[in-house]
Amino acid sequence: MEIQKLIQQIEKKKSMLCVGLDVDLEKIPKHLLDHEDPIFEFNKAIIEATQEFCVAFKPNTAFYEAQGLKGWAALKKTIDYLNTFYPEQFTIADAKRGDIGNTSSMYAKAFFKNLNFDSVTVAPYMGRDSVEPFLSFNDKHTILLGLTSNQGSEDFQFLKSEDEFLFENVLKKSQTWENSQQLMYVIGATKADHLKSIRSILPNSFLLIPGVGAQGGSLKEVCKNGMNSSYGLLINSSRGIIYASNQNDFAEKAKLKAKALQKEMALFIN
């Protein structure tokens, strides 16, 4: 997807919401387990209920891979459903891949060509040649792990060299890579106090912001410190939306949660 199309959807819907499809069979409504493909049935209902209030969907591939072949088939059906019926939605494979160059090329083909996602999350630890294969695909986007919201992020990301943190060095270095204009970055909402300095390094890049909602991140602080002239944010909510109810009304409750978040975001979108 061209980035301008994403920006147009943000303006049209007054939303920067990304709905995370992290499907745990132990948490979905029990009546769905009678279906041949309960994961896809759950996703389909959530997509139908929330698509008017969001601009992106983000399946976390671990939840599908954990179910073996059936899970991978459900992921394929989900992305095919989105691309067929809601092609305006930006799609993210939250896979956190990253390996030596030829392996990264295979990962990129898997998510960009075979599954036809618009983007994939990638770990930067192995450096330039592990990321550039993802960046070689036109109108596809690589979302680099920048500053994450988990507690263990402080183990490495906040190591300091001279007067900058390691995560800042990673952000700066990545901007020198080939086709770096196709990079986006994961920045945790619980680290919103760093967003101003991050924006000075990445003034034009889109940031994927997990951690608003269940993890306690502040939507107001994220928007205040992270938005740029092109909005520049995709704000993810997973559990707070998709598990708003585990009863027959799960889709309607998810819709209400998505609508409430969209209304909050609309206050920050001109």
TrEMBL record:
Question: Which chemical reaction does it catalyze?
Answer: orotidine 5'-phosphate + H(+) = UMP + CO2
- Species name: Psychroflexus longus
Name the family the entry cites.
Belongs to the OMP decarboxylase family. Type 2 subfamily.
- Keyword Phosphoprotein tagged: no
SMART domains per the UniProt record, alphabetical:
OMPdecase
Q: Which gene encodes it?
A: pyrF
Question: What are the entry keywords?
Answer: Decarboxylase, Lyase, Pyrimidine biosynthesis
Please name the Gene3D superfamilies in this protein's record: Aldolase class I (3.20.20.70)
Query: Pfam families recorded for this chain?
Result: OMPdecase
Q: What is its EC number?
A: 4.1.1.23
Which residues does the UniProt record annotate as the domain Orotidine 5'-phosphate decarboxylase? 16-254
Q: In which pathway does it act?
A: Pyrimidine metabolism; UMP biosynthesis via de novo pathway; UMP from orotate: step 2/2
**InterPro entries per the UniProt record, alphabetical:** Aldolase_TIM, OMPdecase_type-2, OMPdeCOase_dom, RibuloseP-bd_barrel
Listed name of the protein: Orotidine-5'-phosphate decarboxylase
Which GO MF term does the entry hold, naming one? orotidine-5'-phosphate decarboxylase activity
